[in-house]
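Section 4.2 – Deliverable D4.2 (structural model, holo form)

The reporting period included a commitment to supply a predicted holo structure for the target in complex with magnesium ion. Inputs used:
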Amino acid sequence: MIILVDMDDVLADFDGGFLLKWREKYPDEFFIPMSERQKFYMRDEYPPELLDKMTDLFTQKGFVANLPLIRGGVEAVKNIKEKGHEVFICTSPMRQYQNCVAEKYEWVEKNMGFDWTTKIVLSRDKTLIQGNILIDDKPEVTGAVKPVWEHVIFDKSYNAHVIGQRRITWQNYQEVLKEL
Ligand SMILES: [Mg+2]
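Output (structure tokens):
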């Protein structure tokens, strides 16, 4: 199978990394603990007046390159590849691409090894990419065309409302992939 794996909040802990830096820099400011997140985009559940400050933080140099790991993700993806599947890291860069794009490559090289940088597929529209499954935490992945892959939801509090789709975590992925 060709397995497309999303990067942010599936392999790299974007939201968790943000929260850590946010609390460090603005300890008295409003925040939402990860387990209480209800919306996919932080901008949809943080007060609008904080958005500029938040954007400054996650677009600053080094933010993406130094994101923490989602536990078990890198090991799982390497294991899936060893089982004979083709694995690609399918990721949408931020609109503010200046640091983000190069640092996604840096992150992958640092945490997974250089060879994995050749498996990165950057696209703001994942429906254009071919594959058997897409593992992604976004509740609905839409775009220009009807995707050929099955969207397997990477389990998070903010996508718990999505029903009728397979769900996966890095703890249960082996059983979920066996069903496919
Ligand atoms: Mg994601």
